[in-house]
Task: inverse folding
């Protein structure tokens, strides 16, 4: 199976790093150090190069090191197809520059899916605790990495949605109504919305059994968890939904139905996971969800994604940590990056995992040095 790996990384004024040059193992790379020293930032830089943006802060200029005018992230990725140099540059007040082999992308969307990647982080708890938008973004992010047409449909849908909402506001403000004008946007929402709903449904059908199996493996016992795709389009098509909600939309001055209202419901013993699950159960759920994302992308793209494990052992009992270690030890994974505050614990993990590994020590002054093995 074709696997893309990042062989080296160069950072310049990215977050807390004035400058860093790193050479990686094609298998396992571990970053150890105290909390707050910037271990996660290295993983986020790799995420930038694969997905064109930060995992944590979508505002590019806020990822530039304090008081500096610009930042650069670049690295070489190697696969069966050869080597690609990816460059990302952000200058305050200017548009982001993103290049592959020195050639600018016309659209950032064209890079999505080129380097499959899965990030597992404490921030994933937002998937359980936050509103539906976070869960939709999760679905969209995964599907977009495996289907460029889906991303195009999503961008077109959101554009038509914005225009329809503006028109509804205009009608209300001016005391007028022209259904023919509204139909132009309705047609776009119906066509794109139908395809998006079909793709999300198929995605959940594939993901659900993988996710439940991963949860059972990590938990090591039978805990009754479930995941359900919630959408108005499960009950009626987009055309019917828009017609049924037209009067309501005119009063609200925005579009109240459609795939932009979809959600994922997570449950434990038939109750919402967010209310009944312990911190350990919630963390196990999000890790299982992300490992299912890994398998989904691998199956769809035929490539092993890069796996980023950011501080995932905190809040988990030893038994669950052991289960995750044994899963990661499986040959189904390609290149792996791990951050941990416990150097001893990580040392044990590395010995258990792949033949090849590198361990880096990260210090509070932004220095990263490989530890002698």
Result:
């Amino acid at each position: 199976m074709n696997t893309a790996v990042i062989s080296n990384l160069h950072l310049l004024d990215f977050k807390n790093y004035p400058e860093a040059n790193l050479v990686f193992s094609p298998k396992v790379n571990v970053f150890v150090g105290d909390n707050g020293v910037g271990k996660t930032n290295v993983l986020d830089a790799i995420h930038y190069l694969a997905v064109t943006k930060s995992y944590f802060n979508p505002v590019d200029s806020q990822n530039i090191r304090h008081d500096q005018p610009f930042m650069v992230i670049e690295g070489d990725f190697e696969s069966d197809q050869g080597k690609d140099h990816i460059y990302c540059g952000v200058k305050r007040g200017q548009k982001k520059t993103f290049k592959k082999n020195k050639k600018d992308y016309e659209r950032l969307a064209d890079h999505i899916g080129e380097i499959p990647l899965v990030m597992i982080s404490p921030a994933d708890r937002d998937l359980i605790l936050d509103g539906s938008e976070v869960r939709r973004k999760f679905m969209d992010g995964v599907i977009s990495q495996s289907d460029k047409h889906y991303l195009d449909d999503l961008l077109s849908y959101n554009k038509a949605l914005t225009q329809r909402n503006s028109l509804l506001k205009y009608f209300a403000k001016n005391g007028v109504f022209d259904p023919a004008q509204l139909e132009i946007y309705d047609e776009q929402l119906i066509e794109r919305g139908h395809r998006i709903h079909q793709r999300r449904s198929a995605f959940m059908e594939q993901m659900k059994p993988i996710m439940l199996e991963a949860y059972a493996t990590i938990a090591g016992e039978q805990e009754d968890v479930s995941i359900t795709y919630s959408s108005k389009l499960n009950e009626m098509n987009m055309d019917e939904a828009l017609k049924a909600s037209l009067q309501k939309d005119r009063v609200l001055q925005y579009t109240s139905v459609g795939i932009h209202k979809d959600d994922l419901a997570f449950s434990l013993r038939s109750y919402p996971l967010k209310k009944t699950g312990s911190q350990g159960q919630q963390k196990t759920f999000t890790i299982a969800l992300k490992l299912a994302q890994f398998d989904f992308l691998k199956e769809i793209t035929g490539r092993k994604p890069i796996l980023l494990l950011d501080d995932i052992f905190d809040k988990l009992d030893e038994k669950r940590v052991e289960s995750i270690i044994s899963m990661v030890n499986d040959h189904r994974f390609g290149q792996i990056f791990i951050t941990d505050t416990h150097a001893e614990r990580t040392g044990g993990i590395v010995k258990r995992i792949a033949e090849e590994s590198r361990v880096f020590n990260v210090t509070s002054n932004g220095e990263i040095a490989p530890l002698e093995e």
User: Anything to note?
Assistant: The chain has a mean pLDDT of 90. The longest helix spans residues 179-219.
